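It would be a great kindness if you could assist me with a short task in structural biology. The full record is reproduced below for your convenience:
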Amino acid sequence: MDDIALRVEGLGKRYRIGLEQSATAGHYRYKSLRDNLGGFAHHPWQAMKRSFTRQAMNDTNSFWALHEINFEVKRGEVVGIIGRNGAGKSTLLKILSRITKPTTGSVELFGRVGSLLEVGTGFHPELTGRENIFLNGAILGMTQAEVKSKFDQIVAFSEVEKFLDTPVKQYSSGMHMRLAFAVAAHLEQEILIVDEVLAVGDAEFQKKCVGKMKDVAGAGRTVLFVSHNMAQLERLCGSGLLLERGRLKSAGSISDQITAYSVSSANDPAGVKARKLLPDLELLDCNVDPSTVQVHKSCDLIFQVRAITATRVEEFCVLICDSVDTHVAAIDLRGQGIPLRLASGQRFTIRTRLEAMSLVEREYQIGIFARSSRGFAATYEIIPVQIVAAPEHTESFTPYAARDRGFVKVEHQAVVDLADELP
């Protein structure tokens, strides 16, 4: 029990869709304030009755943003929460931050909670930056002495010292975010909840934020972090939760959850349709044979491409990427049929054999970089390919996590000599 930071059991959140059924038209419609006031003037008793009675929620007038969520987070863990837009990530964080109540289930929090769910959360626009630091500390349950002890660190990290006595309503969104994150990260709450707000900052400040959250986790505090930046999640988090349509699909190491998320996206019916590579090039189909490849074995890639307009394909490069779109390898096809000219509507097929796939066992994504008369672009996550160990090389011990093993499978032999005497 002592090592648990938070526990979620049977958590569900149901929202009412804000529409009211029209008695005359028989369908659901939105009612404005003018409609409500007009209804009260013409039918006061009926309007008063509707004010004190609400239609029961059902499948027609409501939806479940979260349903039957169960998980535990240990103290000191940094947990990444992954999922598509609408999967329920922000709703989950709002419940954990006690902004909204769950419809079903329970949440147990063992420690003070600080949250940063959007830029300037908890800030009063008429107060200065200095006053908002103390206000935010009080909201988080900190004493004035605790806030004072961290005040200089907060100001230095946020880099807004020059504007500290200026009302925050005059701050830019970047300044808002810097100060809000600095306050949330430096005050001594045991659980820190961060939604995807770091995208507001520049690259240098994002790097500072990631470093600070690593320090927070290293100090034994718990961090829940939502982001669509898979590379940032993999660098920062040790474990992850994958949400899909309001349900917890899986939980475990962050690498496994990123892989599962990528597979889910790649297998989505919307993802296998024809897609534009460039304004004048369209990818019609892509196949990997076999889709599961043993280490040091080969596989075939087949691409079917159509010219939307007459064009010249100057470059065509097959990309092998990891789950966060890092380039593992690039197969340059210039000089192997590329460049080529195409008439409008003309198709061409590229067949490429990848020999001896000496990659570490994990799932990779196939992408394309193309350049034509109308520009250039890279398209990622077209189709997945799984690299697996050969049966005779299956290891008897648990391998390192994917992010710790690099990409290249290096065949090697090693000899360890133990000295007879201690130096």
About this structure: Confidence is low (pLDDT under 50) at residues 22-28. The radius of gyration is 27 Å. The chain is about 25% helix and 35% strand. The chain has three domains: 18-60, 66-266, 270-404.
